[in-house]
């Protein structure tokens, strides 16, 4: 009985890893098919697991848009 418990204890992390792989593989197939539930789940996951580089990327894009607008306004003048 004790060896069965030890075996299950060692297999639990692998089951979790393979479960995540299967889950995300299924999620990517949903997205490729255009299912809205997969997109909604992605938004929910993004709110709970935010990417730390998103704020930095948003700042870069805003600055780039401002410089593009400035260049466009200078060209019109």
Class based on secondary structure composition and strand pairing: mainly alpha
Per the principal axes of the C-alpha atoms, what is the gross shape? elongated
Query: Helicity, in percent?
Result: over 70%
The gyration radius over C-alpha positions equals 23 Å
The major sheet is characterized as: none
Q: Which series of helices and strands comes N to C?
A: HHH
Unreliable parts:
none
Hey, roughly how much beta strand do the residues contain? under 5%
Q: Using DSSP, what is the number of strands?
A: 0
* Separation of the first and last Cα atoms: 84 Å
Overall average residue pLDDT: 84
- Total helices: the number is 3
Task: Summarize this structure briefly.
This protein is an all-alpha fold and 77 residues long. The chain has helices at residues 2-33, 36-48, 54-76.
Provide a descriptive summary of the structure in words:
The protein is mainly alpha-helical and 77 residues long. The chain is 88% helix and 0% strand. It has 3 helices and no strands. The protein has helices at residues 2-33, 36-48, 54-76. The radius of gyration is 23 Å and the shape is elongated.
